[in-house]
Amino acid sequence: MKRMYKIIGAVFLLGTGAVCIEHSDEIMIHGQDEIVTVHMAIGKPSGNMKDFDKVSEAVNERTREALGMELQLDFYDSDQNGLLEYLSEESNIDLLLVSELQEQVQKNILLPLDELLREEGKDIYDVIAPEYMELGKVDGRQYGILLNRDMASAYGVRMRKDLVEKNAIDLEEVQTWEDVEDVLETVTREEQIYGIAADTLMPFDPLGNYLGVLMSDEKEMKVVNYYETEEFYNWLKRIRSWKEKGYLYTKETVRYKSMSDRPFLYELLREGQLFAYIVKYKPGINAQESKSAGRELVSVMIEEPVMTTDSSGSSQYGIYSGSRHPEEAMKMLNFLYTDEKITNLLCWGLEGEHYQKNGDGTISYPDGKDESEIGYNFNLNWMLPNPYLAYVWKGDDLNLEKELHLFNKTAVKSPAFGFVFDDFDVRVECEVTFGIVKMYLSGFLCGAFDVDQMLPKMIKELKESGIDLIIEEKQKQLDRWKEEKEEKIKQLYQYN
């Protein structure tokens, strides 16, 4: 006789703008067999998801067949504070994607994974290289697992393809920020459109929180205040000049805080108000962003890729400390890192209904349909454990995974790669100081501030709030980390 027990609860994320999420924890008993539902918290997709239940059923057909369990995605607004408010002893969450791993460990949000990985997650080691697995450790214990994705970051510019072609812009000739300015001058003159939405350019190692950094040419590992550097000053002056020349998007600047405000940028692109925006470049980004924006986009990489702890380990999967099914959660995570079928279902939906295969090996929307007519647009493939198992969308190179590995391999690796800053002793100073940075940057990024007047005021307030104490503490930890690393290398050399 079959029995099914269903527990339903609802949690509102107060103060975050997040949606109400309905939970369902099901255990179906067939004789002695139990089907456990593993809940995975993930950011709320930006696209049309009316067919989500249909896709979810196909996903669970696969997981029941392969694992004898089911997977349920619980969506929240892509905000770490919202996620943390959602988690509680009553939460059904098992798997979750977190940033700021060390902080989450200190808050007892995550379970240690060492034993679970050995028993139930062995295949993950074939996907994530040992040096990247190290980034998921805190005090020698494994708490997080990196996504199989770009481990480096490189700044560039993303542009509307139709206007690039209309104005005969040769993207191969766009290699410097001066070249970008030439493009902006042409487009703003010919199209009567805002040229670009700016962001802070930080081609260096932020060492966790951008409050004390390593510059790109730093070999001695000296931590400096980036906001006092010539590089930061020159970048702000460039942004200011873009405003004076009429290139810079400045309308509704309260809504636009940074390049992370993607929905707002997509809205501007769809409405025809904006030509380009500054981004962190990676292989495959054009197709991903084009689907989200509803316009075909192209990109150029201006800064060379740099690999840091932050670029590699900013997002990691872990198991919630309140999980009711930690072993099953690790089995599911292992499956998500290695199974092509479930990855394609989550990324693209159902073949023939939400996408079609093309003769060149890529996929696209079914003939005669576009994103507005498709009932499944996940648009968060990068949040999945191993999105490079998925089919390649039309417009991207079929060798996308190879491009990714080459991108990572050729990136300049920070000498502090692997270092994780613990802000425990200066947490108050970090919170206050970072608040000041955000306040001033909003004015600098829209070109509203006179750099020579306002930057000294910003630096003065940063010093008063304790940025020098933060830098001192970070330097102390970095020096200790460097010594320990050199000692390990020495011991390894002697052993061999």
Bulk shape: globular
Rounded to an integer in angstroms, the radius of gyration calculated over CA atoms is 24 Å
The number of distinct helices, counting runs of at least 4 residues, comes to 17
* β-strand number: 17
- Let me know the largest β-sheet: 7 strands, mixed
DSSP helix fraction: 25-40%
Return the average pLDDT rounded to an integer.
Answer: 84
Classify the beta-strand content into a percent band: 15-25%
CATH class call of the domain at 3-147 and 315-348: Alpha Beta
Structural class, by secondary structure, is: alpha/beta
* Fourth CATH level, the homologous superfamily of the domain at 3-147 and 315-348: Periplasmic binding protein-like II
Report the span from N to C terminus: 62 Å
The name of the CATH topology of the domain at 3-147 and 315-348 is: D-Maltodextrin-Binding Protein, domain 2
Low-confidence stretches: 1-32, 253-257
CATH structural architecture of the domain at 3-147 and 315-348: 3-Layer(aba) Sandwich
- Characterize the quaternary organization of these chains: single chain
